Amino acid sequence: MHKDDGWAEESCAPASVPLALRRVLGLVISGEATNRAELARRSGLARSTVGQQVENLVGNGILQEVESRRSVRGRPPRVLTISPQAGTVVAVDVDTTASHVAIADLSRRLIAQDTVAVRIDAGPRIVLDAVAELLRRLLAEYDRDPGRLREVVVGLPGPVDFQQGCAVQPTGMPGWDGYPVAEHLRERFRAPVVVDNDVNLMALGEAEQGGAETPLLCIKIASGIGAGLVTAGGDVYRGADGAAGDIGHTRAVSGGNVLCVCGNVGCVGAIASHRAVLRGLGIPESTDDDPLYGTRVLAQRVADSDPAALHAVRQAATEVGEVVAVLVHMFNPRSIILAGPLSELRDDLVSAVRAAVYQRALPLATRKLTITATQLKGRSGLHGGIALATRDVFGPAGIARLLADEPGAGG
């Protein structure tokens, strides 16, 4: 259980959930078994035990048993699925110019998503209150019971203390350092809240929803540069203090004396981020009327094959590729996914990163490596947040709360 959940340990103890029930539920969640006969065969449990646990799960509104739509002779078979009304999970992706909110049921089916256009430099209270207001509206509009809100996962664009639920010394986020993000939202929704780095969630989303092979590195090139790593076992690697993947402050090969927002000089984020490319081309990042002005202008210039724009993007990609080559030697990933505004500009970014990695990294580390742009566009972080939330909900502590049907108890 995450320390920031705020629930009494005794009410969520794994021992309170029977092993047989966890086994039955796990087989249904994974899709390995869809009816009672398959459950008995795959679990090794007696049919009577399976029947007892199924009745328990159906009675608590976690599973539903419905007639199959398959065309068969005689009586249609009954199949077990997660009940659409078992609960709701929420993913929040906080970005520099806006925050994106998505709600899903426990089968990870996306129900709705929307955006609130509040800049991150407005401060945590204003941003989080706007997110909370949007979330309440979505829950009401799509008839989702707020009392069955099972978990909220928030992605922040900076280092995060995963256990405490707050950002730690983030750059470009005034007022966010140490602010209790998890507590702020937990008080408003009486549900567990988890806070993570946004690129960690993007990496998880690419592995879970995008189907990319693991180990997986996701590189986000936006106002800064960050990386998320999903291990071969499907877990996010966060490091000892939540600083893993903060590669934007790695010294660039040709960084020179360019000053970074962190106070050091020559950081790769200072010369190769989306913001740095815009600055080098003299393109304003935003205007009063259009917060994405710079993104749109750069995209148009690249589409028009503007030589200066193409050179700037390729040079930035080469610098990023040099850093990624080091990561390839350290972690030997199977997949590298490039995300952020620059990744959507034709194939120039991907091609230049790929060229730098293959030139610098040894063949053993690259022989089965794939480097591609994200296919989920701006949705990978939301998908990752939903995946992380449902993992928690169906963990031992989460199942205990489901059975108690008191998601707000102890908050």
UniProtKB/TrEMBL annotation:
InterPro entries: ATPase_NBD, ROK, WH-like_DNA-bd_sf, WH_DNA-bd_sf. Pfam families: ROK. It comes from the Bacteria. Belongs to the ROK (NagC/XylR) family. This is ROK family protein.
